[in-house]
């Protein structure tokens, strides 16, 4: 955990807390998270929560990475984890994790204009990123980390040449498909982030195998490997610079690092002080200062799938009008819900590029499976569900599959989007500046100028059809009129 303050457009760290939980160590062969690992993590989160609980939710960003992605019982644990921390936890994809890591590394560097390779070996995954200056261009996440690699090849504590060779070979096999893409011809400098790389550099420096503290070389890695094999067992490792809590995972981490050096022809790697946590901070600052990368992701997807921008903006504007009227009574007054509704309106027709028939389903599939920078998995799934639900029958099963805390809100956001789409089905300016809205627990009333529906008979018919759809989920839609001066 990192706590920082913005001062003169610069982040100044004012507090840090770190606990080695090794959540990935709790995943069994059935991809279920053990009770022991869960309790370790919940204890850590409760302690962190003591510092964070009183902070505004907009000022806190917490993420879950590979273990949350891999565990089949992650959703149950997520509810407990959020209660312990006192804030929402976003589960992020491997590619999003890589983007944030690169963001953290870039902000820790003085030199900006260079091509760089960034490596981050975590507990359950390894991220590779190629970037040019401040921009991450190629990103991959691999399901191998210091914890699961150590469990697989050194779980009983024994260390020998054969096991180390097997671990390194397994890592090289994972990297083989991207060997050409990440070859040293594509970057000028290699940088490593997070625990494994920092630990290797510390060991190398304190044992005299490297002259610089923030550097790890191929020769130094060979010496570390030799020392581990000579120890023969985890209990007998005596390496200066190796922290006791890292001993159980050091062999798997070194095997992955050696494989990376070999496959990508790295001679030496510099250690970055910034990584995922710092990247999250700068990403959060961007959101607070209205530079949200998610806006760019939505815009890019809209362009790629040739969405009618004028129509999308009409629907967005109407959806925002409806949201403003309904947010308080429907408990939607949260910037996240407002953003999701706006983005869903901008993307609701993206499936048309696939086919008009069932385009709402095509659009949901595209959104659910696209790499959308900045979005958590929960946000991406909610966005997809809103697009899926904007016409025809309500996909109640998919709405109910959302995090429990979002189910009612997701349903109500879908209703607002459906009405915005219905009112703008004519794809022309409808002149509804005088629209009023009233909502109840399970009802929504549109109050239109007295003669408006007389001039829009097709919209009147569409609203009647929409009322029938809403009735199937226990909501009523009524339309009334008012005199406009």
Mean pLDDT: 94
Unreliable residue stretches: none
Shape assignment = elongated
**Class by SSE composition:** alpha/beta
Q: State the CATH class of the largest domain.
A: Alpha Beta
Query: In total, how many beta strands?
Result: 13
Question: What distance lies between the first and last C-alpha atoms, to the nearest angstrom?
Answer: 58 Å
CATH superfamily of the largest domain: Exopolyphosphatase. Domain 2
Content of β-strand: 5-15%
Corresponding CATH architecture of the largest domain: 2-Layer Sandwich
What radius of gyration results from the CA coordinates? 26 Å
Helix count?
A: 18
Strand order of the main beta sheet, please? 7-6-5-8-10-9
CATH topology of the largest domain: Nucleotidyltransferase, domain 5
Binned, the helix content reads: 40-55%
Domain count, please report it.
Answer: 3
| Biggest beta-sheet profile | 6 strands, mixed
Structure description:
The protein is α/β, with parallel strands linked by helices and 485 residues long. The chain folds into three domains: 2-91, Nucleotidyltransferase, domain 5 (2-Layer Sandwich), CATH 3.30.420; 94-280, Exopolyphosphatase. Domain 2 (Nucleotidyltransferase, domain 5, 2-Layer Sandwich); 292-429, Hypothetical protein af1432. Helices cover 48% and strands 15% of the residues. The chain is built from 18 helices and 13 strands. It has helices spanning 35-52, 66-70, 74-85, 94-106, 146-154, 161-175, 195-206, 218-231, 247-263, 276-288, 293-304, 309-326, 335-347, 359-369, 377-388, 396-400, 407-423, 457-471, and strands at residues 2-7, 10-16, 62-64, 89-91, 115-121, 126-132, 135-142, 189-193, 215-217, 268-271, 436-440, 443-449, 476-482. The strands form four sheets. It has a six-stranded mixed sheet with strand order 7-6-5-8-10-9, sandwiched between helices. It has a three-stranded mixed sheet with strand order 11-12-13. Strand 12 (443-449), helix 18 (457-471) and strand 13 (476-482) form a beta-alpha-beta unit. Helix 15 (377-388) crosses helix 17 (407-423) and helix 17 (407-423) runs antiparallel to helix 18. It is elongated and about 90 Å long. The model has no long low-confidence stretch (mean pLDDT 94).
């Amino acid at each position: 955990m990192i706590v920082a303050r913005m001062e003169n457009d610069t982040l100044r760290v004012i507090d840090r807390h770190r606990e080695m939980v090794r959540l990935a160590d709790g995943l069994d062969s059935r991809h279920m998270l053990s009770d022991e690992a869960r309790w370790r993590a919940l204890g850590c989160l409760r302690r962190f929560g003591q510092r964070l609980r009183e902070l505004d939710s907009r000022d806190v960003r917490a993420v879950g990475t590979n273990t949350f992605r891999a565990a089949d019982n992650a959703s149950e644990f997520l509810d407990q984890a959020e209660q312990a921390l006192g804030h929402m936890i976003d589960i992020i994809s491997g590619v999003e994790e890589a983007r944030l890591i690169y963001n953290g590394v870039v902000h820790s560097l003085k030199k900006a204009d260079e091509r760089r390779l960034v490596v981050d070996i975590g507990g359950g995954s390894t991220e590779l990123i190629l970037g040019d200056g401040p921009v991450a261009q190629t990103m991959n996440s691999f399901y191998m980390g210091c914890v699961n690699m150590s469990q697989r090849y050194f779980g009983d504590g024994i260390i020998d040449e054969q096991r180390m060779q097997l671990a390194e070979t397994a890592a090289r096999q994972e990297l083989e498909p991207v060997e050409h893409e990440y070859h040293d011809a594509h970057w000028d400098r290699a940088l490593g982030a997070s625990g494994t790389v920092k630990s290797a550099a510390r060991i190398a420096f304190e044992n005299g195998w490297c002259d610089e503290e923030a550097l790890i070389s191929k020769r130094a890695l060979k010496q570390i490997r030799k020392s581990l094999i000579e120890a023969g067992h985890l209990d007998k490792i005596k390496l200066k610079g190796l922290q006791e809590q890292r001993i159980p995972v050091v062999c798997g981490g070194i095997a992955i690092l050696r494989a990376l050096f070999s496959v990508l022809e790295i001679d030496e790697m510099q250690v970055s002080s910034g990584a995922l946590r710092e990247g999250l901070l700068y990403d959060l600052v961007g959101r607070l200062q209205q530079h949200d990368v998610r806006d760019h992701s939505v815009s890019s997807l809209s362009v790629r799938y040739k969405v009618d921008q004028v129509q999308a903006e009409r629907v967005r504007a109407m959806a925002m009008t409806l949201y403003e009227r309904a947010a308080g009574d429907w408990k939607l007054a949260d910037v996240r819900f407002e953003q999701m509704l706006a983005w869903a309106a901008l993307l609701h027709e993206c499936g048309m590029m696939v086919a008009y028939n069932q385009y709402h389903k095509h659009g949901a599939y595209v959104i659910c499976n696209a790499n959308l920078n900045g979005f958590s998995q929960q946000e991406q799934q909610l966005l997809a569900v809103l697009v899926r639900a904007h016409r025809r029958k309500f996909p109640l099963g998919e709405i109910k599959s959302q995090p429990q805390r979002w189910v009612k809100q997701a349903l109500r956001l879908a209703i607002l989007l459906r009405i915005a789409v219905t009112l703008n089905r004519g794809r022309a300016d409808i002149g509804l500046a005088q629209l009023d809205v009233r909502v109840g627990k399970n009802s929504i009333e549109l109050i239109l100028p007295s003669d408006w529906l007389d001039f829009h008979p097709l919209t009147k018919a569409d609203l009647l059809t929409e009322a029938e759809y809403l009735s199937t989920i226990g909501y009523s839609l009524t339309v009334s009129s008012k005199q406009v001066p």
